[in-house]
Write a structure and sequence with these properties.
This protein is mainly alpha-helical.
């Protein structure tokens, strides 16, 4: 069994969580833009 550095693993986990949330947010905003443009044109 290898020794696990919990602080390093938690830092990595948190980093990946933040990146995942940022990517999800960017995708949601990108998907929302076309409908906003259509609303302006109506």
């Amino acid at each position: 069994i290898m020794d696990v550095d919990m602080a390093e693993e938690m830092t990595n986990y948190t980093t990946y969580q933040v990146m995942t949330q940022a990517a999800t947010s960017m995708l949601a905003q990108a998907n929302e833009r076309p409908s906003q443009v259509l609303q302006l044109l109506q």
